[in-house]
Specification:
Number of helices: 20
Mean pLDDT: 88
Low-confidence stretches: none
Shape: globular
Strand content: under 5%
Number of strands: 0
């Protein structure tokens, strides 16, 4: 079973990049879904035996509600079979990974191997990111959008590496990683976020770090942990700002990061100016507020959205792309905007509820001891926060490395909480 998860980690972090480099055939992009299909069979077989006793009822309620919500949305909007199949593939392909740790107990040795493989695959991200940045500059592209590592999307790379940093911090706080080793690994892991100009890093990283510190802190040591978290964040910001300003200075319209956040005109152009449906470009707030106002014309659409698959362009071809894909494509910037458009407020609320359950389980397990799973859970508090914030920045549902691994290790933490209770 462990070999299956190790294969999954390698495929979600490398296969898409290897295909784009021409080293693997295009069919290799389907490898993560093939692994997920095998996991689904295993989960059904083993789950039927123990009746999924290590899955909290709250999860069943949220998953069932989400399935009904998408089904009602598809019926209310008469979604064509092609887009519907594409949406189910997009939303459900990683879910079996959540249930696997509930029906099969992964030992500390297996979890350690999995986490070490992820860390090992993070090592080449900075050299590769630096090469991508230099190549883009050589071609006259001064944007950081081409700095993607092996994860194929700049924003997703930052979210993923911040999540890895939170887990490393959790291991340190549980006494399983020395400070010197932590600082060295954080420098290596977070280095790509310095060169890809992901401004959201300055929001996601501090909040996730503080969440990880406070989840581990005992009642009498919270001030100490708060000071330590502040020092970590200050050190990162001190490194981030000059590197960001150095690269952005190469742009004709680039501005230093401090000026970006303090100048209303720059901030308004980036966040959005209230553009309507039909616009060719949209800001970050436009990607949320414009779909909300568009769906608000109809109470059913406001609650259930435009239907699963009805807003996304599918790599499977024209017949699998949604009816509104071209019309609303400029607003499809994040997981939140996707859920609002395709699933309405109900789908967004259920997604946030699911993340909240993971956050709660991680806090409980983190305070249960100092073993490896407790250390993982301490970091997973920060990961849950990172994914929640990152959902407003990038489309994480479509990103395999984040969605598959988030669901699997969330399942590890959630199953551990049930085993503790039992």
């Amino acid at each position: 079973m462990n070999a299956l998860i190790l294969a999954l980690i390698a495929t979600v972090m490398l296969s898409g990049w290897a295909v784009d480099e021409g080293w693997l055939p295009r069919l290799a992009k389907l490898a993560p879904e093939a692994v997920s299909g095998v996991v689904l069979v295993i989960v059904i077989a083993l789950g039927a035996r123990d009746r999924f006793r290590n899955v909290r009822p709250a999860y069943w309620l949220v998953f069932a509600s989400a399935a009904l919500s998408l089904a009602f949305g598809a019926m209310a909007n008469a979604v064509d079979p092609g887009p519907l199949v594409s949406a189910l593939r997009n939303y459900a392909r990683a879910v079996p990974l959540f249930f696997l740790p509930a029906v099969y107990l992964f030992g500390d040795r297996q979890l350690r191997t999995q986490l070490l493989l992820i860390l090992l695959l993070c090592m080449p991200q900075f050299p590769l990111a630096w090469q991508q940045r230099q190549t883009a500059l050589a071609w006259g592209n001064t944007s950081g959008d081409e700095v993607v590592g092996t994860l194929l999307l700049s924003g997703a790379l930052s979210v993923f590496l911040i999540a890895v940093a939170c887990v490393l911090l959790g291991f340190h706080l549980k006494g399983r990683l020395r400070l010197a080793c932590l600082l060295l690994l954080l420098a290596i892991v977070l280095a790509p976020t310095l060169v890809n100009e992901t401004k959201a890093t300055l929001v996601m990283l501090p909040v996730a770090m503080f969440a990880t510190f406070l989840a581990t802190a005992q009642p009498g040591a919270r001030l100490k942990y708060t000071v330590a978290a502040t020092a970590f964040v200050a050190a990162f910001v001190a490194a981030f700002v000059p590197v960001y300003d150095h690269f952005v200075a190469k742009r004709d319209s680039g501005v230093p990061i401090a000026e970006f956040f303090t100048d209303r005109d720059h901030l308004r152009r980036y966040m959005g100016e209230g553009v309507p449906v039909g616009a060719t470009e949209a800001g970050r707030t436009d990607a949320v507020l414009t779909p909300l106002s568009y769906n608000a014309r109809d109470p059913v659409q406001f609650a259930l959205g435009l239907g699963p698959g009805n807003v996304t362009l599918s790599p499977l071809g024209h017949g699998f792309s949604g009816e509104y894909a071209r019309k609303l494509e400029p607003f499809l910037k994040s997981t939140v905007s996707l859920l609002i458009m395709e699933g309405g407020l109900l789908a967004l609320g259920l997604a946030l509820a699911l993340n909240w359950l993971v956050f709660q389980d991680a806090r409980v397990v983190a305070r249960s001891g100092n073993d490896l799973t407790a250390a993982l859970a301490a970091g997973w508090v920060g990961v849950a926060v990172t994914v929640a914030l990152g959902s407003f920045y990038a489309n994480l549902v479509a990103h395999e490395a984040i969605s598959y691994l988030f669901w699997f290790f969330s399942g590890v933490v959630a199953a551990r909480r049930m085993r503790l209770a039992r």
